[in-house]
């Protein structure tokens, strides 16, 4: 019968299966490690108690052996002294201590066996913890790699080369609009200047005509 009953929700037996189904393996492993640490602490506490109990059982058996041997010596001395009544009393106590030796020796053997079983289980728990902790480091590295890859993919999606043509298309449209506006303003200015020049030419021609008319008028008066 097992001395230490495991109460973990996650065990090494089902950890791998649950890891394959988990969206967050690091969190699942951390849960396993927490439960295992708690179990190790409980096992160490139980081991300490069992070790103390086993030591007491051995002390009881050893003390009974000492008292048995002592009563046997007393029985021999009483027999030599011709005290048969005292001899029987000593032998009776010796028999009681022999029974005690048998009882406590049996309990000691059982306790020692259970203590050894508990030590094996404790060693197994610590080994499991170390193995899974190493696996946790590996999965953490994988999840971190995945997280960084996702960040990189998002960055490439937001600012990637596929957006550069669109950006330049928009810039090209804007520059074209600015160029068209500049050309339009230039054409308007040129048209205004041409109109001014044309108007100036018309005025100059009119002035020349008026001047010529006046000269003709003066000439006509002179002839009169």
Automatic annotation (TrEMBL):
Q: Has the keyword Coiled coil been applied to this entry? A: yes
Q: Which UniProt keywords apply?
A: Coiled coil
Q: Which Pfam families match?
A: PspA_IM30
Q: Which PANTHER family match?
A: MEMBRANE-ASSOCIATED PROTEIN VIPP1, CHLOROPLASTIC, PHAGE SHOCK PROTEIN A
Q: What is this protein called?
A: Phage shock protein A (PspA) family protein
| Coiled-coil region | 101-135
* Family of the protein in this entry: Belongs to the PspA/Vipp/IM30 family.
Tell me the superkingdom of the source.
Answer: Bacteria
Q: What is the lineage of its organism?
A: Bacteria, Bacillati, Bacillota, Bacilli, Bacillales
Task: Give the InterPro entries listed for this entry.
Answer: PspA_VIPP1
């Amino acid at each position: 019968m097992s001395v230490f009953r495991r109460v973990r929700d996650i065990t090494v037996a089902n950890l791998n299966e649950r890891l394959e189904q988990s969206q967050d393996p690091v969190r699942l492993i951390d849960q396993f490690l927490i439960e295992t640490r708690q179990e190790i602490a409980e096992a160490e506490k139980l081991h300490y108690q069992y070790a103390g109990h086993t030591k007491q059982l051995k002390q009881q058996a050893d003390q009974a052996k000492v008292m048995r041997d002592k009563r046997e010596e007393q029985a021999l001395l009483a027999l030599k002294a011709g005290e048969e009544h005292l001899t029987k009393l000593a032998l009776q106590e010796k028999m009681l201590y022999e029974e005690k030796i048998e009882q406590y020796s049996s309990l000691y053997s059982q306790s020692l066996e259970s203590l050894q079983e508990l030590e094996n289980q404790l060693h197994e728990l610590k080994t499991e913890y170390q193995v899974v902790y190493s696996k946790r480091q590996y999965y953490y590295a994988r999840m971190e790699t995945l997280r960084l890859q996702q960040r990189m993919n998002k960055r490439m999606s937001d600012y990637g080369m596929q957006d550069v043509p669109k950006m330049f298309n928009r810039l090209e449209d804007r520059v074209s609009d600015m160029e068209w506006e500049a050309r339009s303003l230039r054409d308007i200015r040129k048209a205004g200047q041409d109109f001014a020049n044309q108007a100036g030419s018309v005025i100059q021609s009119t002035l020349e005509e008026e001047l010529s008319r006046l000269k003709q008028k003066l000439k006509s008066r002179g002839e009169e």
